[in-house]
Amino acid sequence: MIICQGMIKPSLKSIPNSSGVYFFRSNRNILYIGKAANLRNRIRSYFDSRPKDSRIFKMLELADTVRWQETFSEIEALILESQLIKKNRPQFNIMLRDDKQYFFIAFTKEKFPRIFLTHQPTKQIKIKISQAIGPFTDGTALRTALKLLRRIFPYCTCKQTHNNYCLNYHIGKCLGFCCLKSSDILREQSNAYLKNIQAIKDVLNGKRISVIKNLEREMTSMAQHNNFERAIKLRGQTENLKQVFENAQIILELKSKSAGPEALEQLKKSLKLLTFPARIEGYDVSNIQGQFATGAMVVFTNGQPDKNEYRKFKIYTNPAGDTGMLQEILSRRFRHPEWQFPDLVLIDGGKGQLNAARSVISSKTPIIALTKNEKHRGDHIFVSTQKAAMPLEKLSPTIRNLILQIDSEAHRFAIGYYRKLHKNIYKK
Questions:
Q1: Is the pLDDT of residue 247 over 80?
Q2: How many CB atoms lie within 10 A of CB 382?
Q3: I want to staple 378 with a disulfide (CB 3.0 to 4.6 A). Which of 203, 246, 373, 408 is the partner?
Q4: H-type helices in 46-158, by residue range?
Q5: Pair 341, 371: CB distance under 8 Å
Q6: Which residues have C-beta within 8 Å of that of residue 1, sequence separation ≥ 6?
Q7: Cβ neighbours for 255, distance < 8 A, ≥ 6 positions apart
């Protein structure tokens, strides 16, 4: 620790490289709340040189401690920062924004509400607003968050009604009926739209866990009533929402950049692999309560998705649970010696899935089993080359994001095949 500008500068080694929210305090009173994609780099920036802004200099003089709270993603940090600023109203958050304006997300008061960003939600004259959520400090991050949420919960942005479906409907960003001139809209359609709007409101208000639980409950109910079309859509929404908040770099990189040789070298070193992981295969199973199960294999060659090497699998037998399904897929895959064998295999699951994979795959090929435990923030991996589980947060952001990207791509490919394969069944 060293004294710097009136406060104690924290040891950089004690600050994580993850995203999160940080707090400057004085006598336990919060002076300022900020968010960061990388907490260590952001907090360090306050001490690397004398601040040009006199207000920041004053804040650092008054502060006696700086604390932080880690998050899984920048989107989570963005929303958490907004909630904490609204709750605590720190002195310097107001002072440091007096030449700028906070962002709010406004919802219009219409049959099919639209969503837009504004600085002054209470001064809109032409547009009637039913609710505004904020304040948010980062307009760019907020727009990206909305863009991602709209992919999961489509809503309308058309300014006028029209006779034919809009372009956004065809690319999955609009439910379609909400901007048609035709008034023949079913109550179920109207309710579906309003559910999407409410889900976005809840997520932006920091209630995403309850949104996920509601989606999962409805998915189970639909599956029990044999409405598999609706169930698979709900599962897709659930998984996509989880992935948005699990990807630490999703705001900075809307489309994740592929890993390069340096990242793969880091992966080899961290997991104590004997060979360079030039070819990594990821596997996932897609089913609703065991019905119409399918599986998928994705391949990353030198850190890049190699889509020509992707493979799809129908589950022909009726094995017990996802573990048995995974074992069937791997058994069939490794009966193809003409397919290049992997340097590393990634599967979704825990020790059971790892043991199932190990029973099929040669001991010369290392295996990673990714286990997610969002509730207790205990995401970790089991590696066949090591005895103990490894917390995901202990890995560098580069390696962590590569593992999550492969897992996400395997899930996307598996669920896409499931939908395509059973599209005709759903229509019956």
A1: no
A2: 22
A3: 373
A4: 54-62, 74-88, 91-95, 139-152
A5: no
A6: 8, 9, 10, 11
A7: none
Separation between Cα atoms, residue 411 and residue 242, nearest integer Å:
12
What SS3 state is found at 177?
helix
- Residues 6 or more apart whose CB falls under 8 angstroms from that of 315 comprise 285, 287, 293, 294, 295, 325, 328, 329
Determine contact, residues 277/402, Cβ cutoff 8 Å: no
The pair of three-digit structure tokens given for residue 147, joined into one six-digit string: 């863009």
Domain 2-95, second-level architecture: 3-Layer(aba) Sandwich (3.40)
35 within 8 A of 84, measured Cβ to Cβ? no
Which architecture characterizes domain 261-427 according to CATH?
2-Layer Sandwich (3.30)
Average confidence score pLDDT of the chain: 82
pLDDT at 256 (0 to 100): 43
As beta bridge partners, residue 133 has: 105
Is the model more confident about 381 or about 11? 381
| pTM for this predicted structure | 0.58
| Residue 108: strand, helix, or coil | strand
Cα 180 to Cα 352: distance, rounded to the nearest angstrom: 50
HSE value, Cβ hemisphere, 13 Å, CA-based, for 56: 12
DSSP string, 318-364: --SHHHHHHHHHHHHHTT-TTSPPPSEEEEES-HHHHHHHHTTS-TT
Pairing between β-strand 103-108 and β-strand 65-70 as defined by DSSP bridges:
unpaired
* Centroid of chain to Cα 34: 21
Residue 267: CB atoms within 10 A of its CB come to 23
Rg (Cα) of the chain, in Å, rounded?
24
Strand partners, 21: 35, 69
Paired residues of 380 in beta bridges: 371, 391
- Domain assignments of the chain as residue spans, ordered by start: 2-95, 137-206, 261-427
Under a CB-based contact definition with an 8 Å cutoff, are residues 104 and 136 in contact?
yes
